């Protein structure tokens, strides 16, 4: 009799596992998606970027026509510093929906990080066509053109960024540096004065 209790416990444990798998396999598609996204959020909170990628890859295989899933896979790959895989995920987003601004933008950001500024400009131009009033996209285009030493275009995009968002401190800072590069010192100083005003207001 003394062996009976452990076997009963094992039997119940196996039954519980089987029931658990049955519940997973019988999940509705949206419930399955929600379950994996919950796992992704939990892994992200732990800083476990590799698990985030793994879970998003599962979702991408199950939802091959969902651009948001591939976008989140791209974000997970970026956090895991796997930039090649991130670009592939964002390109898949665009293949499904070429109007997905954030995918074009993220490709541009990765190329800026990798100092591939001409390629960054190409991606960001596609993003700006979709969202011309985005201060952030205008700023990133200004940043890229500055690195390419196309200072006129850089200033134009920085100016557009601060026109859209007059409190965009980083855009004013970058514009000051660009003006300084072309010896427009008074305009550079005006930008820096605006930075100081904003920092005092926001502090």
TrEMBL record:
Gene3D superfamilies per the UniProt record, alphabetical: Tetratricopeptide repeat domain (1.25.40.10)
Keywords linked to the UniProt accession: Repeat, TPR repeat
NCBIfam families: MamA
Signal peptide annotation: none
Keyword Membrane: no
First and last residues of every TPR repeat: 67-100, 101-134, 135-168, 169-202
Pfam families for the chain: TPR_16, TPR_8
Protein name from the UniProt record: MamA
Gene this protein is translated from: mamA
SUPFAM superfamilies: TPR-like
């Amino acid at each position: 009799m003394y062996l009976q209790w452990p076997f009963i416990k094992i039997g119940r444990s196996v039954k519980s596992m089987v029931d658990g798998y049955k519940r997973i396999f019988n999940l509705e598609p949206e419930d399955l998606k929600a379950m994996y996204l919950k796992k992704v959020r939990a892994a992200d909170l732990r800083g476990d970027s590799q698990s985030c990628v793994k879970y998003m890859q599962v979702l991408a295989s199950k939802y091959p026509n969902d651009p948001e899933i591939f976008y989140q896979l791209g974000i997970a790959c970026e956090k895991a510093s796997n930039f090649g895989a991130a670009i592939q995920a964002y390109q898949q987003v665009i293949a499904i929906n070429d109007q997905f601004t954030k995918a074009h933008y993220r490709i541009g950001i990765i190329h800026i990080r990798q100092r591939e500024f001409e390629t960054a400009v190409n991606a960001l131009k596609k993003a700006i066509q979709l969202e011309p009033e985005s201060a952030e996209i205008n700023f990133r285009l200004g940043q890229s053109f500055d690195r390419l030493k196309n200072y006129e275009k850089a200033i134009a995009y920085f100016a557009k960024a601060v026109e859209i968002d007059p409190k965009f401190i980083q855009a004013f800072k970058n514009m000051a540096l660009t003006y300084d590069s072309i010896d427009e010192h008074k305009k550079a100083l005006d930008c820096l004065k605006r930075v100081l005003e904003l920092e005092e207001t926001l502090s």
